């Protein structure tokens, strides 16, 4: 089995941030804030966050702010709850949450809660359990969960639970590993995991492991490195992570590396990107791979960052 090419991955992430005209840079132009979160959190997990210019990044993030209190995916782009969380997470990495107008940001997020407890992603009203997780995670990191109706938010998430133990994007929606992470994460943060049938959901999640050792997002689909995060995090939160073959999953993630130029792809020999690089390294963190810092399965931030926010240490 190969080893994690950590140095190459660090160089790759730094290079993506500098290549403004590259194909990958243009493709994520509308969601550069998300890309910053994926790349910078990977650097922190590898103990290399110090290689970036913190002031430059913070200044750019603040330039993505809107009067509403929300943040866009890049300068001049419309605000959305998804980008707002990424900004909060990056500032948390840098211990710079104090640069935010926390009341304004949290009012923006709280204002997206609907009467039934669900959340919209932005002013246009799309509803998805992803947004429920994002709102709860964001407000929790800002110590402002009291701004929403948590009981209604939990009730809505529970209404999206299916007979197979999983969760969909809306009531009746198909169970999917990404949505399951969002729902389990939101329930974990709000202390509501008792609503989950842990054995039933654990069985559905461990069935996502295929012969190659990789994980897929739903039955009959190909494996993808990103599910090393979505599935593993959910299994950890419901205490069923021992139901999968960890060694085979480590081998699968390492096989998806570009050991020459850095970066991790969805499947072996595919093109790498920052998204899969983060989720691959985050998956290895959950698998306790040597040299990778521990990451919190609910907040998707290094454990030491979460401890600093909630316990001041």
UniProtKB/TrEMBL annotation:
UniProt cofactor note:
Binds 1 zinc ion per subunit.
Q: Name one GO molecular function term.
A: metal ion binding
Names of required cofactors: Zn(2+)
Q: Which residues form the Prenyltransferase alpha-alpha toroid domain?
A: 4-300
Q: Which reaction does it catalyse?
A: geranylgeranyl diphosphate + L-cysteinyl-[protein] = S-geranylgeranyl-L-cysteinyl-[protein] + diphosphate
- One Pfam annotation, family name? Prenyltrans
The UniProt record lists the EC number as 2.5.1.60
Q: Which SUPFAM superfamilies does this entry report, sorted A to Z? A: Terpenoid cyclases/Protein prenyltransferases
Q: Name one GO biological process term.
A: root development
Q: Name one GO cellular component term.
A: Rab-protein geranylgeranyltransferase complex
Q: Which UniProt keywords apply?
A: Metal-binding, Prenyltransferase, Repeat, Transferase, Zinc
* Source organism, top-level taxon: Eukaryota
Class in the EC hierarchy, top level: transferase
Purpose of the protein: Required for male fertility and root tip growth. Catalyzes the transfer of a geranylgeranyl moiety from geranylgeranyl diphosphate to both cysteines of proteins with the C-terminal sequence -XXCC, -XCXC and -CCXX.
- Assembly notes: Heterotrimer composed of the alpha subunit RGTA, the beta subunit RGTB and REP; within this trimer, RGTA and RGTB form the catalytic component, while REP mediates peptide substrate binding.
The family classification in the record reads: Belongs to the protein prenyltransferase subunit beta family.
Record-given protein name: Geranylgeranyl transferase type-2 subunit beta
Q: Which organism is it from?
A: Parasponia andersonii
